[in-house]
Amino acid sequence: MNVKDFIPRIGSVVALLFGLLLFILFFAPWVELGSVGGAGDASGLRLSVGNLARERGTDRAAIKEINEWIGARPWYFLCLLLSLAILAVSALSTLGKMPQANAGMVLIGLAVVGLIMMILAATVDYGDEIEEGIMDKVKESSQEIERAPTGYTEGSRAFGMTDAGAIARGAMRDMARKAAENSWTETTGVLWFSFVLYILVGLCGAANLLMPKLLPLLAGKPQPAAPVQPTGEQPPPPGGPPAQA
């Protein structure tokens, strides 16, 4: 491929680099989670399978328990497929195996889908899942307490539970709510950098579409003149105007 053929495909060459970065960043931390039980982070891969990586200073048992509570989000595997698709389309276009205009439109479409996925990832919140997990633990603990021998009061008979079970259940529910309130999920710079990369991929696709039109202008080649519109007047005959009688 000579230089003249390579320059119009510069958008695909740059998109190839961006696709490689997006592939690598899929395995870097996208979000961080902190709660009373511990702290961890999740890459695109870990978001997909529902598994947090333990941060330094966090108890392994706490993270293991949190991982049992949070759910998998397999649709984030689409981000991995998007990065591979960007690599494939960019490589084919760079090598001249794919029309430049087609590659540009595909790159723009992939970038739009990637931006949507990044926005969804930025809204991930594990607070509700942690609260639900703690509440399940509360139910198990209160049931064990209720099975233990203890006396009934008039109030507890009305609700069919023991004194100890009623007190424990109320206390643990308060603990679950406070745990959910004190938990937080934050996005990392990796996620926002990936967001910017998808924007740049879309711009590379637009460059593929516009470059063939811009290159003649940048090279200073004269553009063909527009055809003159007729004014309605009849041109004179080839021999000149007729002689006056």
Spatial order of the strands in the main sheet?
3-2-1-4
Largest sheet: 4 strands, antiparallel
How many individual domains? Answer: 2
Mean pLDDT: 76
Helical residue percent band: 55-70%
Distance between the termini: 71 Å
Spans of at least 5 consecutive residues whose pLDDT stays below 50 are: 149-155
N-to-C series of helices and strands: HHEEHEHHHHHHEH
Give the total of beta strands. Answer: 4
Estimate what percentage of residues fall within beta strands: 5-15%
Number of helices: 10
- Overall geometry comes to elongated
The rounded Rg comes to 33 Å
Give a brief rundown of this model.
The protein is α+β, with helices and mostly antiparallel strands.
Q: How does this structure look, described?
A:
It is a single chain. This protein has 245 residues and is of the alpha+beta class. The chain folds into two domains: 3-126 and 184-215; 127-182, no CATH class. It contains ten helices and four strands; from the N terminus they run ααββαβααααααβα. The chain has helices at 3-6, 10-25, 44-49, 60-69, 77-94, 100-122, 127-147, 154-159, 163-182, 189-219; strands at 29-35, 38-43, 53-54, 184-187. The protein has a four-stranded antiparallel beta sheet. α5 (77-94) packs antiparallel against α6 and α7 packs antiparallel against α9. The protein is elongated. The N and C termini lie far apart (71 Å). Residues 149-155 have low confidence and may be disordered.
